[in-house]
């Protein structure tokens, strides 16, 4: 990515773009209270309602991957670009296809990500022919995606840009205008890669977590029923709200246990050593890539007894409230912690709880809870029965 965007950026560029993203997240409503947060909650609920209508219309068991990709993709796309799409829009289908396939293929090309010199061998080496094809597909997808982004940007500029934008495209475009004489890092290239990072990372990890959550709830009916009982007591016949979160510790615990037992990013985001260092007797030279192994933290029996067992009670304290755990890092760790953590928690809570409020979930006993590893750890193809609750 040439050090563009935010995921692959480093140094001063990364610090500046991180400040841009965090500052705008706060201004968009990622705070505890306020009208803007209420708007975000309302937008999430619109996506939830579309998902529930799709589930109600379905007959028999359902593979939720494409449903979730559409509704979650739209919620996140609206925050990033200020735009939503109809499900059958051809451009939207292309964007979703690039996101789904690109995530899988980049994961397959893992050796190239961690041994960068291999990318120069893919054209001629008999040992690496498939990686060359993968990289070509990814590059073509990136180019087409960026053309779409630029078209959306042009359409926004032809309208009357907001003084106080409610999405990242508007905020970035405002900075481009402000810095027209000396753009610095606010260029069209940076725009393309930053928007891709914000949308792609936000959609894939949340969608994958929800797919795992629904699968584990279907596999463990007694835990599912405890969550539904809790939701019924708190919400009654009304809709769940973000303000209900403190009163739904078991729902929070089941989401957290899903994130623990199936870390969607088992390998964390790469960090870099700024200087020579020693850790536990090992020398880490300046410039080394340092990758936190999230899977090892979450499956460590010292911190999580019987780690292979799905047990949300480990996140419930003696007082019956949700218990935070130190050895639990679903949103990464260090300076490169996920900047959209608050937004992701909103999505998981409202979508996860909102589906269980309306449906009981069942799945065939033979369905596996093993995963496939790409950039993310995804469930193997499966179908779940969503049975409307009386």
TrEMBL record:
Cellular compartments annotated: Endoplasmic reticulum membrane; Microsome membrane
Pfam families from the UniProt entry: p450
Keywords: Endoplasmic reticulum, Heme, Iron, Membrane, Metal-binding, Microsome, Monooxygenase, Oxidoreductase
Family: Belongs to the cytochrome P450 family.
Protein name according to UniProt: Cytochrome P450
SUPFAM superfamilies named in the record: Cytochrome P450
GO cellular component term of the entry, any: endoplasmic reticulum membrane
List of residues binding heme: 338
One GO process term, biological-process aspect: organic acid metabolic process
Cofactor(s) it depends on: heme
Protein task: May be involved in the metabolism of insect hormones and in the breakdown of synthetic insecticides.
Major localization class: endoplasmic reticulum
Residue ranges the record marks as coiled coil: none
GO MF terms held by the record: heme binding; iron ion binding; oxidoreductase activity, acting on paired donors, with incorporation or reduction of molecular oxygen, reduced flavin or flavoprotein as one donor, and incorporation of one atom of oxygen; steroid hydroxylase activity
Membrane topology: Peripheral membrane protein
